[in-house]
Model the fold of this input.
Amino acid sequence: MSPRVVFPNKVLPYLLLLPQLAITIVFFYWPASQALYQSVLREDPFGLKSTFVGFANFRRVLSQPSYIDSVQTTAIFSVSVAFIAMVIALLLAVMADKIIRGRGFYRTLMIWPYAVAPAIAGMLWLFMFNPTMGTFAYMLRSAGFQWDPLLNGPQAMALVIAAAAWKQISYNFLFFVAGLQAIPKTLIEAAAIDGAGETKRFWTIIFPLLAPTTFFLLVINTTYAFFDTFGIIHAVTGGGPGKATETLVYKVYNDGFVNLNFGDSAAQSVILMIIVILLTAFQFRYVERKVHYG
Amino acid sequence: MKIQGFAAGIAATFTILSTSTAFAVTEISWWHAMTGANNEVVETLSKEFNESQSEYKVTPVFKGTYPETLNAGIAAFRAGQAPHIIQVFDVGTGVMMAAEGAVKPVADVISMGGSQFDKSQYLPGIVAYYSKPDGTMLSFPYNSSSPILYYNKDIFQKAGLDAENPPKTWPEVFEAAKKIKSSGAAQCGLTSTWLTWIGLENFAAWNNLQYATHENGLGATDVELTVNTEPFVRHFQNIADLAKDDTFRYGGRTSEAKQLFLSGECAIMTESSGGLGDVIKSGMNYGLGQLPYYPDLEGAPQNTIPGGASLWVFGNKSDEEYKAVAAFFNFLSQTEIQQRLHEVSGYLPVTLAAYEATKASGFYDKNPGREIPIQQMMGKEPTPNSKGVRLVNLPQVRDIQNEEFEKMLAGEQTAQQALDKAVERGNAAIQQALGN
Done:
């Protein structure tokens, strides 16, 4: 549909791609290949002795009950974060679209949290809700609510989900606002003239036309929840209480850098890599079919 | 993962740059984990050493928390860019000891500098902990601490308790905590930092109980945990019962609970003597006491075991560099340096001479309670149960114990179940770390 750009020079396109390629090689392919290599080795922390063990690390990891628990934790965490972050962002974007006065100001405020680093976002929520020093925690406790995420697993989970979703709302909001602006006003007006109410207009016109944006955000939010939330979990709960908030990526860190078990940790990161590749492939194969690109 | 490697790379580059510019002076790097007032001590000591002579120069580098410093050291070693000296916390001792070939025993380093390491000058408990089973001193004791009891005198008075005589035994502590809660003097009676270090490792030594086989791992690495015996179960069931109505409150896995004490929410706390600085700073009306024990247990109170950290020297450095390290360690062992370290930081003096000098100066008369951690550690000749705990993967074992404690305090399991699981999972983790 769109006209193709053709480069007359054969070398130039590769030159232009080079910086991006270099970054991808240094920060993705090289570490990923190291992880693959490490995952078939057994090594002491200092790397003094290493032996090739084949798939022994994978077998051990997959037979651990705590690994299966972590898969479950990750599923609950990721689905909740992606769902909450997208629903709230969509709601806010639709609202923001209706504002006439101070629209730019309102949008700027909405986008701000995205600039906050994950670890700092975690600290913000921790300061508000930590039972030993948090203001909101104090208010909850004085109101008679047994708020103790240090010991109560579901409460700790709710806290990290809230922090992770809060941080991602801005990003989603930005894309939803752009998506909404691309919807021709004439369609909505035509529907309004035909007598469709606001809710009906949203579900029959706006929501389907936003599908490409929603799909894109679904992919992005899933990978965000899988990987980028490490800082938040590290700052807020450290994977606890018990192992209630130990997601797969946190377990990779914990087994590798706290327990100094590099073989198991590398095997886990390889498994994690496969899970995310499969998940993304699945999304593109099955979910994208339902997406209509205008 | 990526960031750490990258940071290690940058650090390595700086090391190369800084060593290549030095010709006459031998430079050595010291990676440490000291913050706040303790960081200032590190900076001052290095500066004084550098000014005291012109041959050697020590550069201290702050590398984050204790575990982060250890990980940075390991990453740097793997990249062939290890620092000369690294501060490793007590818990990492087993990790470092297992890395023969990566580290150089301190005894060897000192003898390369032309003198001998005189063990008799150091506090016996500390020397034993940082030595190999054959007696070779492996690391240089730098900062040592011991858990003690802190209490809020104002709350004690409000609750009608004797503010000048803190409870001595655990049953007395629990009674006092209940009275504080029921009288409404405070929201919570008791809390504790480091449940694993204080409630298991020191609890075992102080009550003369076995923590693990083979002298708690000091005799051999292939050990089995024994922390699910009756006294441990009884102690933690008591705590779990008190936690039901918030008479005991949990703060977190490390020193977070200190906040509960400083804010006046909890009246009694067991915490490291190294945490005294913050308590003094808060300006509260506090009192200090010995770590509580169970009077019916034979031999209790025995002695506490050292916490804190020691300095390790990495292998594969030049003779000249080892001489520099030896000179620095000799500098650190001086009585006046040790005495100042003790008085400023709240950590224990590691030489006997420094302890005697502090005593003679009248410091303990002016600061009652400051001698408690030393007396606890030195009071009795250590038994096989009280020389210390050393496991190849103690950080991991502590994590497992913390996870089970958290489930217990949340009411999901009893103390017996928690400790049984902690032992079972801990033993499996030890076997895996040993490669069996």
Remarks:
- Confidence is low (pLDDT under 50) at residues 1-22 of chain B.
- Chain B has two domains: 2-145+306-361, 159-304+391-434.
- Chain B touches chain A through 40 residues (CB under 8 Å).
- The radius of gyration of chain B is 22 Å.
